[in-house]
Write a structure and sequence with these properties.
heterodimer; A: 239 residues; mainly alpha; Four Helix Bundle (Hemerythrin (Met), subunit A); 6 helices; 2% strand; elongated; B: 105 residues; 2 domains; 3 helices; flat
């Protein structure tokens, strides 16, 4: 017996879930798990272990940033001022919005609301696409201004070498982040499709939950990238 | 056994808080707090991340094992960064006389 959503907007509600409804197994239950709840917990733990690995993956780049910024603080602040912080702030708001739509999508999946799942996940995809569109614009500007590390890099002033390091970090960190978003969008599309087809409900919505964990993680990475890359030079007098 | 359904009102509250914190981040960046600049910027980012982890990622409503795994991941990240910076802040760890070291300016 499932007692679903009472007061879905008021706050956390305990929803008792039985993996074996009406005497036979739920089709999503894999038989080495005792019930759906244990399976869900195991899936969630597995996803968190993957996210832990991702934290270390990005962590290596954040470490590079920490060391080089501490070695060349002035050059990094100067180079940072070449980034458009307004576009960065816009992208931050867009991604936070996409996390909200993602969370609401997981919520809809837990309630088994087919159409809501699909629309919230499509909204998440749209916001993700907006983010990537802004990044395309930004990267294009960098190419125009010769700020892409490599043979065509050109930077006025004595700090050209550490500035090039800054831009290498900018492209690798935001590029790796953008790659994660590009991978996430087709996954979201699959979830939206499956949700539309009625595959998710109070007893089983694990794939949407795990997709949510992934997407929120990608949002958290950007939450750190924005101040570290875009706002370094903001209190310089020439901004 | 149950699965926690977090209410939409909480999601909206967290979303609002994240937007406010983003605004504060931008405002704070335009002011010079001296030695506290990094602390303020990272502190706000950490606050936002904590909100996302606890509420959007449901860790507040998760098992203790999950909470342990999540905390553990950040412990290892902290070890990586603190350990390496420890080397770079040490004036005797530079590779030869010409390598730069991090000085306390």
């Amino acid at each position: 017996m499932s007692d679903v959503t009472r007061g879905g907007t008021a706050g956390p509600v305990h929803v008792p879930v039985r993996g074996k409804a009406h005497g036979h197994d739920h089709p999503a239950l894999v038989h080495h798990f005792a019930d759906l709840d244990q399976q869900r917990e195991a899936s969630s733990l597995g996803m968190w272990l993957f996210i832990a690995q991702e934290i270390m993956f990005f962590g290596g780049l954040f470490l590079l940033y920490a060391v080089y910024r501490n070695l060349y603080p002035h050059a990094f602040a100067e180079a940072s001022s070449h980034l458009d912080w307004k576009l960065g702030a816009l992208n931050t708001v867009v991604l936070i919005g996409s996390s909200l739509t993602m969370a609401l999508g997981v919520h809809a999946a837990a309630l088994g609301h087919r159409k809501a799942i699909a629309w919230w996940l499509i909204a998440t995809i749209v916001l993700g696409a907006v983010f990537l569109g802004v990044k395309v614009v930004e990267y294009g500007e960098k190419f125009e201004h010769h700020l892409v590390p490599g043979p065509h890099f050109h930077y006025e002033g004595p700090d050209a070498r550490p500035a090039q390091i800054f831009f290498s970090l900018y492209f690798s960190m935001t590029g790796l982040h953008a790659l994660h978003m590009i991978v996430g969008i087709p996954i979201l599309a699959c979830m939206a499709w499956m949700g539309w087809r009625g595959r998710f409900g109070p007893e089983y919505h694990t794939p949407v939950e795990l997709t949510g964990l992934y997407w929120h993680f990608v949002d958290i990475i950007w939450i750190f990238l924005f101040p570290l890359l875009y706002l370094l030079g903001a209190h310089q007098p020439h901004m | 056994m149950s699965t926690h359904i977090v209410g939409t009102r909480i999601y909206l509250a967290v979303f609002t808080a994240l937007l406010v914190l983003t605004g504060i981040t931008v405002w704070a960046a335009r002011h010079d707090f001296g030695a506290l600049n990094n602390v303020v910027a990272l502190g706000i980012a950490v606050a936002k991340a904590v909100l996302v982890v606890l509420f959007f990622m449901h860790v507040k409503y998760s098992s203790r094992l999950t909470k342990l795994v999540v905390a553990g991941a950040f412990v290892f990240l902290a070890l990586l960064i603190v350990g390496t910076l420890h080397d770079y802040y040490s004036p005797h760890m530079t590779a030869g006389a010409h390598a730069p070291s991090i000085s306390r300016e």
